[in-house]
Here is the input.
Amino acid sequence: MNTFKPKYGKSSFFSKSFGNLHTLLPKYRFGALVVFVILWVIYFGGVPLSPFGHRGRHNEMPRSHPLTSKHIIETSSKYIYPPVEHAMQLKQLGVENLVEEIRVRDANFPEIEKSVIRSLNFYDHPNPLQQKQKEDEENAASDLAKAKNFFKNQDKIVFSPKSSSSYPEIVVVTAIDFEKYSLDALIKVVQNRVDYAHEQNYGIYVRWYQEFLPVLNSFSYLQHGEKRKWARLYCLRAAMFAFPKAKWFWYIDEDGLIMDISTDLNKYMLEAEKLDPIMLREQPIIPPSGLIKTYKNSKAESAKLILTQSEEKVETSSFLVKNDVVGRAIVEIWGDTLFLNYPGFPNGPESSLTHILQWHPFILSKTAIVPAKTIASKHTEIEADPEDKFAYVDGDFVVQFADCAGPKCEQALNHYYTKFKSTSS
Here is the structure.
């Protein structure tokens, strides 16, 4: 069994979030109203204020729970990742045996059949103790059953610290794919995150891409790179459930490595005085000459979403979200199935986010675009020009090779992991 051990050492909501809303209403009345209502519902749990100035009688709301289950499994470890050594068994089983596909009639059009994919957690016993006993017996009898049970149960795992002082402020999030990379490569990806998180006292949250098929609801999403990017967003949402009190979440794709584990994200870019000078103001959302641009008066302390761009579009292989009511609302809007199912978005969540930033000024005002070299330097086949604004050079914080294909992905990963080991040690 692979156990990843670190190898290296050691004001009010309204005043901040709605301060500028009145200036948006005359020009963007409808869009601002929609955002206001969504934030109101999320913040107040759908309970209106009474006429007497206090919250009215609280309607009993269902307890929040993981995506595929009503049960949770608590862990005191802030390093949450699946048993990567199961990759070969999972590949042998195939996704068709890890989730269930059923045919149902469309509620609105009964004459139409559609395919629905759901997690095997659907069949769990209502009593979690009885379910655990059943799984323990299956796990003892078969390695394949053990891999399948761990696969479906990963969604239930949440962080429960022994003390509040041990709660991580930042959580690094990554989705990994047992069909794309070898076991050796997957181990390197997860070990890279563990080493960095240990050095900085952060948390990590890693899931299999294939676990999010019930959200994507089609096996075909695994065959299309742009659609598969959506798993990044749903993995982030799951991390927010597992670490509800973290301050920031950093999603970094498996096609990338953290090259400098000594870099503290807070001091590097999250503190307002560090973020302010690197924010790209009056920057076209669609470079190089899009009409809608980031605001020239955007404030670093207001940033809830931090992302980068390539030469032609916004990128989601590495981005940060603040875990407050506005940050979570942005993630919920961005991940709405209306956007997921819209056929006119060729770049998946990147096209969706571009649309949101162009049409919802409140969200744009809470978004910071920073240079690619901060958290997403790009791998190149040839030695990069040090003046290149996008390409990775030795000493950069992060390298991304998201545009790789086939064996070149693992070749790039191995190349940079060798560099990472030599500099980190």
